[in-house]
Design a protein that fits this description.
single chain; 84 residues; mainly alpha
């Protein structure tokens, strides 16, 4: 379920959002969502690298992402990342 949040951005992030908005010709909301999405998938990849190097367990990875095992397997499959 989508939810609304209110955040305060520092000056650098605000300028970046404005630039992203102009370059992609999207609303501030869409630019912010795009930035959050990129950050989320980067975090998934960071955790996945830690998992592959044996630094964290699959259980820990799923917990960090707030996902159930099946959801995490599906996400990794979508991103074409190996589960083992």
């Amino acid at each position: 379920m989508p939810s609304a949040i209110s955040i305060q951005l520092d000056e650098r992030l605000q300028r970046f959002i404005e630039q992203l908005q102009k370059s992609k010709q999207v609303s501030p909301k869409e630019a912010t969502i795009d930035l959050l999405r990129v950050g989320y998938y980067e975090r998934v990849r960071q955790l996945h690298r830690q998992y592959l190097h044996g630094e964290i367990t699959f259980r820990r990875m799923s917990k960090e992402l707030g996902l159930e095992y099946r959801q995490l397997y599906a996400l990794l499959e979508d991103l074409k990342l190996p589960a083992a």
